[in-house]
Amino acid sequence: MQCALCQSDNFEMVSKDDAKSSMELIVSLCEKCGLIQQTPIPTDEELREYYSKDYRVDYKQSYSPKPKHVLRASRTAMQRINFLTDSGVSTGTLLDIGAGGGEFTYLSGKAGFESRGIEPNIGYSEYARNEYNCNIETGELDDIEGKYDVVTIFHVLEHLPSPIEAFKKLYQLMAEKGTLLVEVPWIETNDASPHSTYFKAHISYFSVATLSSCASQYFDVINVDTSSNLKMLFKAKKTPLALEYPNAPSVNAVKLRIKQKGWVEYLFNGKGILKPLRKLAQMVIENRVRNLTGKEIVDNYFLKSNIN
Length: 308
Fold this sequence. Notes:
The chain is α/β, with parallel strands linked by helices. Helices cover 39% and strands 21% of the residues. The longest helix has 20 residues, at 67-86.
């Protein structure tokens, strides 16, 4: 197979096991550009079937969000909204791709955007429409039409077989001077367990260099946050230009970073040793909302966020 970014066929294997199922899953690093990806990449039909029915059940163990999922999604949604507003993006038409249960779409609307979303999973998109009266369609990236001032795509790009084609489609959705916010797992982070890195559902694993390279034909980077996951804010180019590939030093840096990752770093630098205590505190907080509706949870969180 060829690399999804640079079309090279020169790979180095970095993992052979799915972290969730322990079944075989070959993940490799491209020696030319540094993009880490499944080898081979699943077919479009395999991916469509998986995400329309099985993905949310596999990863959330439910067909629609539970109260604890709603609370977590509300917290994350406000962090993303704050990242946008802190970067000078606070109004306009907004499209959220991979909208999940609709919390970000709903909250961004309350925060001042004219928001809509699209979500491939039937249960989650139905939940969003029924619980929040959100403008969320059941569908995929290729189903979207129109132009938007702001497009957001959170933890979706790593699931797509061709990041280059995805950025091309995203560019086509942008209004003039439009802004794109992408969030993906950051392969260089130190706060992810070494035994919880590579999954069947994730096709690509991005560094700052490879994500910006995938977007470089159509977008310029204007802000980056690597506090845990990788958030990257882009401005649409006036006209598409040639793709810019990662240079050799950045490829070597990713190779070295992958080899450096391990339990000692995760437990101490990444504070993994505190994870049981954090989970216990989280369980206590989530227990308080177990009898609330999704809308009550989200509205309460929005109110508290504005007060604070």
